[in-house]
Amino acid sequence: MSRLASELHRLRRSPWEVLCSALVSCGLVLFSQLAVAIVPRLLPSISLLAMLPVAGLVFLAAILVGRFWRRFIGVAASAPLFVLFNVLFLWGVYLFVIRRDTSSLLDMLINAECALLLWGLYRILSGDPGIVAYESSFLEEAGCKDFVDAICSSEKYPSLSRVRHCNCCKANVRGYDHHCPAFGNCIGQKNHRLFMALLTGFVVAESTYTMCSTKYITRCITSGTLITENHLSLNMVIGTMLFSVLQVVWQVVFLIWHVYGICFNIRTHEWINWKKYPEFQMKEQPQSDFEVKFVNPYDKGMLCNIREFLKP
């Protein structure tokens, strides 16, 4: 366990580096959000649906410009802090601009969703994904000499067949799915359910924010206060709404993929690097002259995998 602790200690940064990273991440969030808010200002005559691809291109351009300046000044940003500040920014726009036109029930709902997102980010960032130390008794019980023996001998030790090494964390993780830069941690056996809940929470919270911001924009149009409304706040609401819709689009696709992986008992890392793990590749077993069945030797059915995923 001391060897694992020393490896993780090398990954830690000094307080000054963390502060600089936080400032850069916060500045990048403000710059990208303001860049998206310029879209409705420059293109007021087009529909919100037509603004979506333009807003997506502007957001990507802002990220690329921010990345260039980040490298120019030699300060690294933090993806988890970028996600955190985006949540806080959307929450702030809601509290100071949109909230007055929202019902009390919807107001309680969106505030609870944002608070739960912050709590979930903290839990997944600071939690253990299922790291297994080199000297773990888990290996001794299975009769493995080292992790090379445990990882390669998947047929002999099926319980260790999914202990994978993460190059980002420099650690071995049981039930390794992938390393998530946005959440700053590996996704493994111990935090996979939290990851799925957090991903679903982002989709729900951003969808709720989109609904609230749409009501605000509709109220400004129908009540005739569109001209007298503060242009900066209105453009900020439209910009954050476009950002939320873009986020929901790719997050729903990402969520569907992970649900598919749970149902068919496959990890993201195994799918991307399937040539490294031939035991997870699809094999053909001819049943008759006219029938071929594709079988994954680790797939025991959709229902069994879902029960295993939900089992505490």
From TrEMBL:
User: InterPro entries in the record, alphabetically?
Assistant: Palmitoyltrfase_DHHC, PFA4/ZDH16/20/ERF2-like
In the record, biological process GO terms are: protein targeting to membrane
* Subcellular location as annotated: Membrane
Reaction(s) catalysed by this chain, per the record, are:
L-cysteinyl-[protein] + hexadecanoyl-CoA = S-hexadecanoyl-L-cysteinyl-[protein] + CoA
Q: How does it sit in the membrane?
A: Multi-pass membrane protein
Enzyme nomenclature, EC number: 2.3.1.225
Q: Which GO terms describe its cellular component?
A: endoplasmic reticulum; Golgi apparatus; membrane
Membrane spanning stretches: 47-65, 72-96, 194-217, 237-260
PROSITE patterns recorded for this chain? Answer: DHHC
Write the signal peptide boundaries: none
Q: Does the keyword Lipoprotein apply?
A: no
Protein family membership: Belongs to the DHHC palmitoyltransferase family.
This chain's protein is named: S-acyltransferase
Native organism is: Triticum aestivum
Kindly list the organism's lineage: Eukaryota, Viridiplantae, Streptophyta, Embryophyta, Tracheophyta
